[in-house]
Amino acid sequence: MISSAEVVIDSDPCFGACDIPVHLFGISDVIIQIGHTRMPSIGAIPKMYFANILVDIDPVYVVRQALPMLRGTVGLVTTAQHIHHISSIVSFLEGEGINAIYSRGDMRLDSPAQLLGCDYSAGLDIEDRVDMFLYVGDGDFHPIGLAVLSERPLVCANPMNGTVRKIDSLRDVIMKQRLVAIERAMQAKTFGVLVSSKLGQRRRTVAEKLLASIKAAGRSAALIQTNIVTPELIGSYGFDAFASTVCPRVAIDDYARYPKPILTPVEAEIAIGARPFSDFRFDQILAEQ
Ligand code: SF4
After folding, report:
1. 60-166 belongs to which homologous superfamily?
2. Based on C-alpha coordinates, what's the Rg of the chain?
3. Which of 78, 156, 182, 253 could form a disulfide with 82, with the two C-beta atoms 3.0–4.6 Å apart?
4. Does domain 175-279 correspond to CATH entry 3.40.50.11860?
5. Is 115 close to ligand 1, i.e. is its CB under 6 Å away?
């Protein structure tokens, strides 16, 4: 037990459970990451702890408002902040005569039914068994990938502000943005292939395969290892376009910040003609990659 301790606030950005602060190893006795759950696929990290922040609002009141929009078997998904309410949501829906199920998902997830902005396995694993999805949580960041990846309708019930809505129109906006990014990169002769040095974002094998595909398509390319992607970094290299194997949301959410097109691995393959557009997929980092 620690009776007294000097607390140091790490001022570097921390984007998620993938983002292990290795720069603190050896200079801190204990590292506490606040607001995220652990990522089991990374493995145990000595002296590192995750302090999730649970939202203490019972979401049943907003799930009740969503009832008129629910039909058939409902797949439940949520974020780490509401994960402790999943069983009470299931009980409530069953009491209303609605069959609700959820999945363990893969080993990047700490809890069943959990979504990450890069991992939709908790929803996609049960896609064939449900008629629609109900996301309980706030914002678009977590559910948007499931809305793009799945044909099933997705209703969002937000316990924080009491709203219930579909996000189908946002799916169309994202698809148009990605199409524009792919078209901008089609004429690129040179690609920088971004590889993350963050433990939970590192996709070196994907990056090396992409590098080989780009070269095989007659373009030139080089790997760029980086911890954080910024507009300054992207602007400082002379490549025409970038293929990103780091956090998928760098390319998808921040595309307007960058002076050059940044594509996810699947999008880069489409841009160089190695994959048809009909094979488009919202990028994920799954446990087996
Ligand atoms: S890779 Fe991106 S979306 Fe996934 S946990 Fe890390 S920061 Fe979040």
Report:
1. Diphthamide synthesis DPH1/DPH2 domain 2 (3.40.50.11850)
2. 20
3. 78
4. yes
5. no
